[in-house]
Write a structure and sequence with these properties.
Elements (H helix, E strand, L loop, with lengths): L2 H17 L3 H14 L4 H13 L3 H14 L4 H13 L3 H14 L4 H13 L3 H14 L3 H17 L3 H14 L4 H9 L9 H9 L6 H17 L3 H19 L3 H17 L11 E7 L5 H9 L4 E3 L5 H8 L3 H4 L3 H19 L8 E4 L8 H7 L4 E6 L2 H10 L13 H22 L3 E5 H6 L1 H11 L46 H8 L2
Parallel strand pairs: 1-3, 1-4, 2-3, 4-5
Length: 518
């Protein structure tokens, strides 16, 4: 076999390995080819993307830098460097590489799309939309057009421009009637009132023709929402269960990992004395709790204040702790603990800088930050912590019937895992309350939606902010919303969802039984 045939064959094999998510084997085979043919840049790109998929980003960048030395104007290498730096939230470098890639080819679809994603991560929706439109114009086939339109439609949806997002999703379905991601997106912002609803009938017609699990999952979540709107809760549950079963299989979540982490957190605080470090310049308001407990609504209320910037669900705190999780068992003296806290604060604010936030008060509403409350109070002594509470069945059912972009919420796709995780959360929150009760504001969702003005004023007072009437109108807040709550928070505060889970009560016995034993 000559070298051209060899390289063609190996490229095909490695790309298939990458697409099937067999990243370890893709890495192994790419390194073999690179050793034999060090000037074949294609294999550097496949290798780097495979390494990044396993979060081995430092090594991925090393190989891309090596490729860039060989071909400084290679648009694929430049784009992949931008992609990985964007993933690491090193926004300045990511922007540089995307710009360099586009200098060499202004119509390079991948760089245009990824540059748009970078702006979206930085909360610059205007620029994100500009680049998604450029990507659509540069798309050379229907698949690329569909990809750019999905991101464009989702961005319009996040900023509350539902009319524009509907038009985009309908355009996608004209290009590809089988695009169930568009169906799922439409379902989130559409109220189904009749079995004759045009979009509902379109979805029903395609059920039997969808064979791919990923597409069937999206369609099932959409039909679960539609049947709930129509009051057919048996059919709704059947579709939601089908969607959740697929998601659980894909994520391979194990509750045992969280059991160990929660246990180690409590053990660490019982065995060590934690002292606060210096206050940072910016003040962080952490909004925490179980997903779907009212965290998005709470952020919209507070970020409506003229002095506050709502940064959304920032991943940085969890990133730092997850990357250093072994510290819970290894650090056991005051100096090491203090240095660890200082490192965490530096890491967090180094990432915040990439967002170019002018306000000195920031909201971080990553719900699962509840795990780190004891650390937060030491790392950010001037921070405020708002813990959102809601009826446990309402929370768990809402988690189960929605899908999440974050892989950290893998517990929500199985009723047993969900109930056990809720119990872990409840136990840890009781632990934090025993130690730091005065530093945590416990916000009851039902009280918030039934006594809006009284509860909102309490929240603003706890945050030590001057009163701002805008906080009473969170539905008018123009800040983007990227969670499953996106349609609700664009409406006035409502009470209708409080007991929604009771419509499915007979299906949720395992959930009720496990949660009961808290």
């Amino acid at each position: 076999m000559n070298s051209i045939d060899y390289l063609t064959k190996e490229a095909s094999i490695i790309v298939n390995l990458y697409n099937s998510k067999n990243f370890s084997e893709a890495i192994r085979k790419s390194k073999i080819v690179i050793k034999k043919h060090p000037d074949e840049i294609l294999f550097y790109n496949i290798l780097s993307l495979s390494l990044s998929a396993k979060n081995e980003n430092t090594e991925a960048i090393k190989y891309l830098d090596s490729a860039l030395n060989k071909q400084p104007n290679n648009i694929y290498v430049l784009n992949n460097l931008g992609l990985i730096h964007s993933k690491l939230h090193i926004f300045d470098k990511a922007e540089y590489y995307f710009q360099e890639s586009l200098k060499n080819n202004p119509d390079f679809f991948d760089a245009l799309l990824n540059y748009g994603n970078l702006f979206l991560n930085k909360n610059d929706h205007k620029q994100a939309i500009t680049f998604y439109k450029k990507a659509f114009d540069a798309a050379k086939n229907d698949l690329l057009k569909e990809t750019s339109l999905i991101t464009l439609g989702n961005t319009y949806q996040q900023i509350g421009d539902f009319e524009s997002s509907r038009k985009i999703y309908k355009k996608i379905l004209q290009i590809n009637p089988q695009c169930t991601k568009a169906d799922k997106a439409i379902s989130l912002i559409h109220k189904y009132k009749s079995l004759n609803d045009e979009h509902f009938t379109q979805m029903i017609r395609k059920v039997s023709s969808i064979k791919d699990k990923e597409n069937y999952k999206s369609l099932s979540f959409a039909l679960g929402k539609a049947y709930e709107d129509l009051g057919n809760f048996d059919e709704s549950f059947n579709y939601l269960k089908a969607a959740n079963d697929i998601e659980k299989q894909q994520l391979n979540y194990r509750i045992e990992n969280d059991l160990e982490i929660f246990s180690n957190i409590k053990k660490f605080f019982l065995e060590n004395e934690i002292s606060s470090i210096n206050n940072p310049n910016k003040k962080i308001i952490f909004v925490v709790g179980m997903p779907r407990s009212g965290t998005t609504l709470t952020e919209q209320i507070i970020s409506a204040h003229k002095e506050v910037f709502g940064a959304g669900e920032l991943p940085y705190l969890s990133e730092f702790f997850n990357d250093n999780i072994n510290f819970l068992n290894q650090i056991n003296n005051t100096t090491k603990i203090k240095n660890f806290l200082i490192d965490c604060q530096k890491y967090y604010f180094s990432k915040i800088e990439g967002h170019k936030i002018n306000e000195n008060i920031i909201i971080d509403k990553a719900p699962l930050n509840f795990k780190w409350i004891g650390f937060i109070l030491a790392i950010f002594p001037n921070s405020k912590i708002i813990h959102c509470q809601r009826d446990p069945m309402a929370i768990c059912w809402s988690d189960y019937k929605n899908s999440f972009s974050s892989k950290s919420i893998g517990f929500s796709y199985d009723l047993v895992d969900l109930a056990k995780f809720y119990n872990l959360y409840d136990d840890l929150m009781n632990f934090w309350k025993d130690s730091f009760n005065k530093s945590i504001y416990n916000l009851d969702y039902q009280q918030l939606v039934t006594n809006k003005e009284i509860e909102i004023k309490k929240i603003i007072n706890f945050c030590e902010l001057k009163w701002d009437d805008n906080c009473l109108k969170p539905e008018e807040n123009k800040k983007s919303v990227s969670t499953a709550s996106l349609s609700q928070v664009r409406s006035p505060i409502y009470k209708s969802s409080i007991k929604n889970w009771e419509n499915y009560s007979s299906k949720l016995n395992v959930l009720k039984e496990i949660i009961k034993h808290t």
